Amino acid sequence: MITLRGILIWASTNRWLRERAVRTRFVRRSVRAFMPGEQIGDAIEAAVTLKAAGISAIFTKLGENITQSAEAAGVYAQYIDMLARSTAAGLNADISVKPSQLGYDQDSEACFAYCADLLHACEARGVRFWIDMEGSSSTQGTIDLFVRLRRESAMVGIAIQAYLLRTDADIEQLASLGSAVRMVKGAYLEPEGVAFADRSQVDEQYFASCVRLLQPDAARAGALLHIGTHDMKLQERLLDYVRENGIPPSRYEFAMLYGINMPRQRALAQRGERVRCLVAYGEHWFPWYMRRLAERPANLWFVVRNLVRR
Ligand SMILES: Cc1cc2nc3c(=O)[nH]c(=O)nc-3n(C[C@H](O)[C@H](O)[C@H](O)COP(=O)(O)OP(=O)(O)OC[C@H]3O[C@@H](n4cnc5c(N)ncnc54)[C@H](O)[C@@H]3O)c2cc1C
What we know:
By secondary structure, this protein is α/β, with parallel strands linked by helices. Helix content is 53%, strand content 13%. It has a single domain (36-284), classed as TIM Barrel (Alpha-Beta Barrel), CATH 3.20.20.220.
């Protein structure tokens, strides 16, 4: 069945649309709801404001699926620059990268070397190096990359998608390794044999995965859970679980996206919860923006309203 979500996620990979959309003023204006700006300075400024509200940041430079390995060197250098500027601004912000942005598809060894360097730079600053999860064709490669990096340092984390049928087994492996895991529902268009089509199954797998990562054996091995969702019902269900089972606050953090339900992010921080807001920046925002629209059809009406009002 063709859905609006499907169309938007397909659009996220369409070059023709991307090239036109990013030049359109109203699209550029609309993306600002989810991104403070294209420059590193814009992201830092937003994180400084968040810090005043008790919210930490995770920075990600937008851009994925580079086509030439030489581009990876530039992405790597940008992240090193970001870490230096973040420290100088007094932030303890994590960073998050996509393997395909650091050339995994062209040269997985070079990608590992860039990641290991960034991980050590993060470790030296006491912040975490996160690996985003992309489409299911790269899940195994991304987990293998994470496992190798985990041998270098515990300051590496990985995003795991609850919608994938394989997630149960992956979480078992990651829990016993004592991993930092950002649980997300999943943002890509996946075929039925690979992912749950039913949202309630995704939510159940999400909850079960989080609970597994909060178990004592995972905690003893050093696991950290990032509750990467805006779904307040799931958040509250997990908070109930945490309370009822005496889970210490050091074992989990909330992670949400810049521009999505900011009052909730502030409210969680005011309740004493640890909250991190993922702040994206960079010029290559089109696929990422399309995925944000796909997550909530109301976002599309916001864009259309802007278009009509022009
Ligand atoms: C910190 C973080 C990192 C992520 N990293 C990855 C990753 O590496 N790989 C990956 O595949 N996915 C990633 N995602 C995206 C994730 O997979 C989901 O697509 C996204 O979070 C929407 O699902 P949800 O869990 O918020 O729940 P949903 O059930 O989709 O949404 C719950 C409620 O949140 C609000 N909401 C959700 N999305 C939006 C939106 N775009 N705009 C406005 N309101 C919204 C709505 O009120 C909605 O009813 C990440 C998400 C977060 C928060």
